[in-house]
Design a protein that fits this description.
By secondary structure, the chain is an alpha/beta fold. The chain contains nine helices and ten strands. The structure holds adenosine-5'-triphosphate and magnesium ion (MG).
Length: 265
């Protein structure tokens, strides 16, 4: 379990009574009904919940990619969910997001993908530094420097995910949002990612918000775990509190996951 000192009063992200609906052919689909959740500076918050429940939608609100129908999103006490106050610069500089699908630029090599993020963030950065940082980031995600010249189409899904992670970390964000970082990865690579999340917290005091279905990694990396259920955050607690809770929805979810995890491949 993480052992970093976190001030419970220092909340870097605040979600206050978020509401969000989408319109489908069947009518209005209310995904977030009343979501309130505060992320403390320096903590790793894991969000769990059923597939299609709105976890990715929550992350997209945190990074300003979606605007709520009601309620507020605050980052460092500034409202970012209001179009008039939307401060893309601050958000871009502070936050990195690892998308669920990775989303690398297909026409660029692995190295160019990472370098692109670096150059955008540090205009005028010398080429030697770019090369050096790209090599270091590849090392961080356990990929050989020779991978820099590979094209995304040559990589497995898991490798693409790791490269996306390297690209996200390239800009040294203060807050990193991870959408299912270990899904589809073998257990050893998953653990590389888990350790990376723990290391960025310890070394760089990064705040992480991680959406995952993987309870093994949730228990390993989380300072706190929040559960989304039918449009509400119904539970927030430490890994031990999750294991010990009598909340029937949390129990059912954890038991369901155990069953899934024991299915042989
Ligand atoms: N931009 C959008 N337009 C319309 N509907 C959307 C949009 N984004 C999300 N939704 C819908 O909102 C619901 C929640 O989606 P979301 O991707 O957040 O679920 P999730 O909890 O991340 O699921 P999973 O665990 O499968 O990734 C889904 O029904 C999805 O179809
Ligand atoms: Mg999702």
């Amino acid at each position: 379990m993480p052992g970093v000192q976190i001030d419970p009063k220092n909340e870097i992200i605040q979600l206050r009574h978020l509401r969000k609906s989408f319109w489908t052919t069947e009518g209005e689909q209310q995904v977030l009904k009343d979501v309130s959740l505060n992320i403390r500076k320096g903590e790793t918050m894991v969000i769990i919940g059923a597939s299609g429940g709105g976890k990715s939608v929550i992350l997209k609100h945190m990074v300003g990619l979606l605007q709520p129908d009601g309620g507020d999103v605050l980052v460092e006490n500034k409202v970012i969910s209001d179009a008039n106050h939307f401060d893309t610069d601050t958000i871009r500089r502070k936050m990195g997001m690892l998308f669920q699908m990775g989303a690398l630029f297909d026409s660029m090599s692995v190295g160019e993908n990472i370098a692109f993020a670096l150059r955008e963030h540090n205009p005028g950065i010398p080429e030697e530094s770019v090369e050096e940082i790209v090599a270091r980031l590849l090392g961080l995600i356990n990929l050989n420097p020779a991978f820099a010249s590979k094209m995304p189409s040559e990589l497995s899904g898991g490798m693409k995910k790791r490269v996306s992670l390297a690209r996200t970390l390239a800009v040294e964000p203060e807050i990193v949002l991870y959408d299912e970082p270990t899904t589809g990865l073998d257990p050893i690579t998953s653990d590389v990612i888990n350790d990376l999340i723990l290391d960025t917290q310890k070394q760089f005091h990064v705040t992480s918000v991680v959406v995952t279905h993987d309870m093994v990694s949730a228990y390993k990396i989380a300072d706190r775990i929040a559960m989304l259920y039918q449009g509400h955050i119904i539970f927030v607690g430490t890994a031990d509190e999750v294991r010990e809770t009598h909340n029937p929805y949390v129990q059912q979810f954890i038991r369901g996951m155990r069953k899934l995890e024991s299915v042989p491949e």
